[in-house]
Amino acid sequence: MANPSLLILAGDGIGPEVMAEVKRIIGWFGDKCGVTFDVSEDLVGGAAYDVHGVPLADATMARAQEADAVLLGAVGGPKYDVLDFSVKPERGLLRLRKEMDLYANLRPAQCFDALADFSSLKKEIVAGLDIMIVRELTSGVYFGEPRGIFPAEDGTRVGINTQRYTTEEIRRVARSAFELARRRNNKVCSMEKANVMESGILWREEVQWVHDNEYPDVELSHMYADNGAMQLVRWPKQFDVIVTDNLFGDVLSDCAAMLTGSLGMLPSASLGAPMANGRPKALYEPVHGSAPDIAGLGKANPIACILSFAMALRYSFDMGDEAARLERAVETVLADGVRTADLMGPEGGTPVSTSGMGDAILAAL
Amino acid sequence: MANPSLLILAGDGIGPEVMAEVKRIIGWFGDKCGVTFDVSEDLVGGAAYDVHGVPLADATMARAQEADAVLLGAVGGPKYDVLDFSVKPERGLLRLRKEMDLYANLRPAQCFDALADFSSLKKEIVAGLDIMIVRELTSGVYFGEPRGIFPAEDGTRVGINTQRYTTEEIRRVARSAFELARRRNNKVCSMEKANVMESGILWREEVQWVHDNEYPDVELSHMYADNGAMQLVRWPKQFDVIVTDNLFGDVLSDCAAMLTGSLGMLPSASLGAPMANGRPKALYEPVHGSAPDIAGLGKANPIACILSFAMALRYSFDMGDEAARLERAVETVLADGVRTADLMGPEGGTPVSTSGMGDAILAAL
Ligand SMILES: CC(C)[C@H](C(=O)O)[C@@H](O)C(=O)O
Ligand SMILES: CC(C)[C@H](C(=O)O)[C@@H](O)C(=O)O
Fold first, then answer.
1. Cα–ligand 2 centroid distance for A220 (angstroms)
2. Which CATH number does A1-114+263-365 carry?
3. Residues of the signal sequence (chains A, B) (predicted)?
4. What pLDDT, on the 0 to 100 scale, is given for residue B262?
5. Taking 70 as the threshold, does the pLDDT of residue A1 lie above it?
6. Which of the residue ranges A32-41, A236-245, A264-273, A345-354 would you say has the lowest mean pLDDT?
């Protein structure tokens, strides 16, 4: 049987640096565990624009469709701020999500013991926090039509976007959330604004339908998204799995990520329907951005990207043990006080560069 | 000259209880300061539905249009959850906002010194916090057409809402934000998702236009709303005035409110264009909801509603000194350790009921 294929799209800013460490980890799994991938690389975001004039070339899109999993670094940077909306780096990422139909975006918000002091929240509020946000990723206001800026009669303008969800779009992401909950603490909280948006009413009804018909064993609650933001700040440990739409998911998952104090640590998985080989279409990427201010300086923390690869092992390749092994190595290194600049707190630690962190994790493996 | 008129809409849940304390404060200003209002009362929300079958009667709407200021308690409760979307308690509030054209919703997120320990955030992150969120309140996805749940050909359904902003809708709320900033720390941060939504691009451009043409002296920055949620959690004191749209404002202002740990304390003002007498159309309400679980028990904290009246003194009646006097009385009472149940922490204090808190504030005045 052929090796599973990985397409690496390192992208912009710190993307290539953090991805370099992931490549070393992939190499380690090949050398030491006989877990070998066919790795290829291509361009996305500003890096693709510089070469092709678009943030994702058609050939790259085709390769992503073929790959068993895509690993993405980060996209964007001030250099590209002046570009037209249609060719901005983000459009490359959004095209991947949409055309691969990666409807379930899994964003764990986890607080690492060694880093609980980093949170702006009190330690007892966040220590041990482990929630999973499932964000719908291919629909809603991100993709709904009509959209655009239109001239008004009096010479002024109107900006329009459309929030649009179908029964099936809601049901499939709800199923992803319920499946995950069954393997966790069996609780799902669904968030929308059903009190002001009809699309939120449909969201609530369809999530409830999936629950009643397919997952009655999972505990389901509903919450307005504004209250959700409050509750995340007040007492995040009340949640297990949260399922929400594309836009609320964008804001709430970033809020949750920041609660943990471990932003440079958080991975994500974006999953679609199973391919012919049974694996889901999948893209893995760190939650952090391209951090142009520190790009190229060897300061970036590669852990979020490395943990994204761990998610790939778990969700694409059914290698839960290997994933757990990699996650444990990261925890060991943190417990040993190994720190990239972003993790360096008042209590000190051993300062390392991006590759120094890679070295430490390889040693711990 | 006739006394200025106040329309009180106490609404549901704890609304009537907290409003009873506000009425005593209004009485005090009349007796002791010669500041007399013509006060009348009417129904909104579930209370209106119970009597009229709608959450806001046309006659009430007309009275609100005439009033110099409207004071609202809270709307909603489990009893009304089964009602159709069109007559839910919230629709009464939304009708007031829309028909009075209250486009600028001012939501201060302020941390009271005596309560800094109540926040889930570390004390040094929130102590002294004082930010003002200006939320657009009459447009965007709350009111855009088309909207609704539509049948699809295959028997499934589609939920649709429309995010829609015009040049003028953006410019006028931006002006409110810049005006406030000039009286504060002269900084405005505007939040949207211009990287994925064209309506966000228009928002950014129009806010920038107002800045460049009318308020070049105010410091303006732009931030994506997801990053805004992160930054609010990470270091809220970086902000002075935040201006954002209706939906982001709903979520971000609740997030900011919870940061302060003083949710039962936070007032809001919703302001529209000036009326013939020069006063803006205005509605004042606490940020907290109707709290049906404690309604009628005399446990509710009336401070948010009382501080909403202080905002009315300041923004509708140009009585900044009287407003400050009332705010100082509240601070004194808190510093003295007077505590409704929601404010009772491990360090203790003097427990009081809703009216006990009213007594204390009257005494401090
Ligand atoms: C880069 C941007 C388009 C993206 C989004 O809004 O989805 C990012 O914020 C994210 O959450 O992955
Ligand atoms: C009650 C509800 C309609 C309202 C809103 O969504 O605007 C509330 O959450 C608020 O923020 O005032």
1. 23
2. 3.40.718.10
3. none
4. 77
5. no
6. A345-354
Q: Write down the domain spans for chain B.
A: 1-112+263-365, 130-259
Q: Superfamily assignment of B1-112+263-365 in CATH?
A: Isopropylmalate Dehydrogenase (3.40.718.10)
Would you state the pLDDT for residue B1? 66
Q: Look at residue A57 and give its three-state secondary structure.
A: coil
pLDDT digits (tens, 9 = 90+) for B332-341: 999 999 999 9
* Residue B303 phi, psi (nearest 5): -65, -40
Ligand 2 centre from B246 Cα, in Å? 10
> How much distance in Å is there from the Cα of B241 to the middle of ligand 1?
24
Look at the block and give the residue holding tokens 């939040």.
B191
The minimum-distance atom of ligand 1 relative to the CA of B226 is: 9
Q: Where are the alpha helices (DSSP H) in chain A?
A: 15-33, 46-52, 58-66, 89-99, 123-126, 167-182, 198-214, 225-234, 246-259, 303-315, 320-335, 354-364
Pair A316, A272: CB distance under 8 Å: no
Which residues of chain A lie closer than 8 angstroms to B235, CB-CB? 120
Taking CA atoms, what residue in B is nearest to A159? B199
Going by alpha carbons, the residue nearest to atom 8 of ligand 1 is A250
Give the gap in angstroms from C-alpha A251 to the nearest C-alpha of chain B: 4
Clarify whether A23 is annotated catalytic.
no
Q: In residues, how long is chain B?
A: 365
Q: Check residue A348 and give its pLDDT.
A: 84
Give strand pairing partners of A345: A348
Catalytic choice (A12, A42, A103, A193):
A193
User: What pTM does this model have?
Assistant: 0.96
The answer to whether B349 touches B339, Cβ cutoff 8 Å, is yes
| Regions of chain B with pLDDT less than 70 | 1
- ∠ CA A305-A310-A313, nearest 5°, is 130
Q: What span, in angstroms and rounded, lies between the C-alpha atoms of B230 and B6?
A: 39
Query: Is A193 one of the catalytic residues?
Result: yes
Looking at all shown ligands, the one closest to residue A12's CA atom is: 1
With contact defined as beta carbons under 8 Å apart, do B333 and B361 qualify? Answer: yes
Domains B1-112+263-365 and B130-259 belong to one CATH topology: yes
Q: What CATH architecture applies to the domain A130-244+254-259?
A: 3-Layer(aba) Sandwich (3.40)
Q: Looking at residue A81, what is its pLDDT?
A: 87
Closest Cα in chain B to A83: B195
Contact B132, B241 (CB under 8 A): yes
Structure tokens at B47: 């209370």
**Among the four given CATH numbers 3.40.718.10, 3.80.30.20, 3.40.50.1820, 3.30.460.20, the one describing domain B130-259:** 3.40.718.10
Reply yes or no on whether the pLDDT at A23 is more than 90.
yes
Max CA pair span of chain B:
69
- Nearest CB to B161 within list A199, A206, A263: A199
Atom of ligand 2 nearest to the CA of B253: 11
A284 inside 8 A of chain B by CB: no
How far the first Cα of chain A sits from its last, in Å, is: 27
Q: Does B196 touch chain A (CB under 8 A)?
A: yes
The yes-or-no answer on residue B142 being catalytic is yes
Residue among A161, A200, A202 whose CB faces B198 most closely: A161
pLDDT of A242 > 90? The answer is yes
> Which two structure tokens, joined as six digits, stand for B89?
């308690």
- The answer to whether the bond into B292 is cis (omega within 30° of 0) is no
- Can you tell me the distance from the alpha carbon of A365 to that of A310, in angstroms, rounded to the nearest whole number? 13
Number of the ligand closest to the Cα of A193: 2
The sign of the CA dihedral A38, A39, A45, A48 is negative
Condensed to tens digits (0 to 9), the pLDDT of residues A295-326 reads 999 999 999 999 999 999 999 999 999 999 99
Strand partners, A135: A105, A244
Give yes or no: B50 in active site.
no
Interface of B with A in 95-124 (CB under 8 A): 120-122
